[in-house]
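Q: Could you fold this chain for me?
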Amino acid sequence: MTGTPQIEGPHSPVFLNAEPPSLDCRLYGICLSGRIQVRVREALRKETMEANLSTSPKKPLLSVIIPAYNERDTIASTIARVRQAQVSKEIVVVDDASTDGTLEILEGLAGPDLTVLQQPRNLGKGAAIRAAIPHIKGEIAIIQDADAEYDPAEYPRLIAPITSGEAQVVYGSRFLTEGRSLRWPEGMRLANWLMNRLLALMANLLYGARITDEATCYKVFRADILKSLPLECRRFEFCPEITAKLRRRDIPIVEVPISYQARSTVQGKKINWKDGIQAIWTLLRYRFGE
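A: Sure. Below is the predicted structure, expressed as structure tokens.
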């Protein structure tokens, strides 16, 4: 009977109260169906891409720790350069009882990204860093000096090995070139060069650190690791102490080449030969004394 369904198999077309369509009609239907399927696929692809973007991991927050003591000539420009760095960040400055107006300058730089802490008296760089650690909120932390020797524009390349999961700790090396050969950092005096080479050699011999720059300011950590280290430092022995304690936990240190512009004592550099002796003693102490 005309219009009666003819069922020949599970995938046969069913026609109700109509003549079966002609071959041309059926071909047109197939083409139309194909177009609809393509459009559906395109819509689903777009939906998937939008979902992936909306659920993409949030950029980790970088906590920039800046110990500062009598840095009125450079503190404002340092904060400005840190703010320009192309990373998600917070800035935690610890004023180490400055007497030159550094704190007053910091108060004028107030913003939601800046936390300023004040030490009751001058206790040293290491003590200032220790004071900052409980206040950081980021997943990654970096040490930044308040002078103009180090360039915050290099933050992205310094944190990259950590964000990619390749490293837990990164040191920015002043002595490495992009080709991984050694160089003499611009403006570094011979005495400082010799002491830096000695400290790196000691770190490698005593702790198997495999690094070229133990005393670099640019040290970057997963924040949970930094917070877990029982630090005791007060002055510049922060560097050898943290290097020793990282390596005693068998935590590898990855190095990234960085730029560097040394400043002189006249320009405000505070580290001296006594700090070099203290650094040597600190490396020996944590290798053999504990």
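A (continued): Confidence is low (pLDDT under 50) at residues 1-21, 23-32, 48-56.
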